[in-house]
Write a structure and sequence with these properties.
The chain has about 120 residues and is mainly alpha-helical. The chain contains 5 helices and no strands. It is globular.
């Protein structure tokens, strides 16, 4: 019973935790700290999906996330956007410093995506 309660609490707090991480990403964006910025976006997105779908983060992969989001009724275009942002952040962590405009667009896309996901799987 306790495990069910923990999962329920994590599910309910998923959006709040994602917003907290996005706020930190915004701080790194303002400071032009590309690596930290992309790391926080990854944590926000993976953490949100992990918490909302009650899947341990260690068990999440691009394939499993795509499949599970699809089962929850998330549109293919939103799943593709999720994968695009994840892929871009993964690449950017090891690439030369990103352009502030690109980082800003990625940040805005992440906010919009989490809101869309919450509208579908948050019900």
């Amino acid at each position: 019973m306790l495990m069910g309660n923990i999962a329920l609490v994590r599910t309910r707090k998923a959006n709040k935790m994602a917003k907290r991480r996005l706020k930190l990403a915004q701080k790194y964006l303002a400071l032009s700290q590309s690596e930290q910025f992309h790391e926080e976006l990854l944590k926000a997105l993976w953490g949100y999906v992990s918490d909302k779908l009650s899947i341990p983060i260690a068990n999440l992969s691009s394939d499993s996330a795509s499949e599970t989001l699809g089962k929850f009724g998330v549109e293919d275009s939103d799943i593709n956007e999720f994968m695009r942002i994840i892929s871009t952040c993964e690449y950017a962590r090891y690439a030369p410093k990103g352009e502030p405009l690109q980082m800003s667009d990625l940040y805005e896309s992440s906010i919009e995506l989490i809101a869309k996901l919450d509208g579908v799987i948050g019900k």
